[in-house]
Amino acid sequence: MTLLVADDRRVRTLTLDRPEALNAFNEELYDATADALLAAAQDPDVAVVLLTGSGRAFSAGTDLLEMHKIATDPDFPRGRHGFIGLIDALVDFPKPLVVAVNGLGLGIGATILGFADLGFMADGARLKCPFTSLGVAPEAASSYLFPALVGRQNAAWALLSSEWISASEAREMGLVKQVCAPEDLLTTARRHAEALAAKPISSLVAVKRTMTEPHRDAIRAARDRENAAFAELMGGPANLEALAAFAEGREPDFTRLPPGW
Predict the structure, then answer these.
(1) Closest Cα partner for 218 from 108, 135, 114?
(2) Which CATH architecture has domain 1-181+201-261?
(3) Are 105 and 126 in contact (CB under 8 A)?
């Protein structure tokens, strides 16, 4: 099992549970998380979803070992939803989503905060959008959501630099609402989730819809642009060098790539 699901007081807690892989998303976890969001959206007893991770990481993003297999083996079995299906589930999720970043968050482990209605981070947690270090493009509509959330310059640094973002920097940017001591993170996130869950679900859905509906077309357009750019770059010289370097335990060397890469 890669995802733990627990219900209490109309809050459904989803816990990413691949601690040995730093909760990296493989096809199985993408499917499980998308299915869980779709089910929570339809469940009349669920008012709020709280998402967190087990162990020392929130999520290390896409499982790079599996990504390498997908990039080099056209017959590698894909999930029913996969990454794109999870993003679709996040875009369409009609109820409040609370995200508690308990540790490292890379790739989708960082960009998912663009879909969080409330975000919380442990004070030792860190975020990274490692797209340029992997030779690929942004994901999860972050090219639209991050500038809207944190401003163009903060978003440009986060998406272009592949540098770590501390919890305090994430709070200062506006990526998360509050930074907590690790032992207080889930208590704080759950307190906020339960405060929302005590309200009428119909009203929560209406408020979220009025906030998100004006942005839906722009989010979907950004997602489509990103997916096209990602598909173009995945398996290219820069991406293959990055994945090979990861598999070999070394730093990638992009200086030897063909001109333009």
Answers:
(1) 114
(2) Alpha-Beta Complex (3.90)
(3) yes
Angle (nearest 5°) at CA 67 between 66 and 70: 90
Q: Are 118 and 99 in contact (CB under 8 A)?
A: yes
Cβ–Cβ under 8 Å, residues 226 and 143: yes
Q: From CA 126, how far away is CA 226, in angstroms rounded?
A: 24
Q: How far apart are CA 166 and CA 124, in angstroms?
A: 8
CB 97 within 8 A of CB 115: yes
Residue 10 scores a pLDDT above 90: yes
Its pTM surpasses 0.90: yes
Confidence of residue 218 (pLDDT cuts 50, 70, 90): very high
143, 146, 147, 151 alpha-carbon torsion, rounded to 10°: -150
Report, as an integer, the average pLDDT of 167-180: 98
Is-contact 98 79, C-beta < 8 A? Answer: no
pLDDT digits (tens, 9 = 90+) for 102-124: 999 999 999 999 999 999 999 99
**CB neighbour list of residue 228: distance below 8 Å, 6 or more residues apart:** none
Is pLDDT at 16 greater than 90 in this prediction?
yes
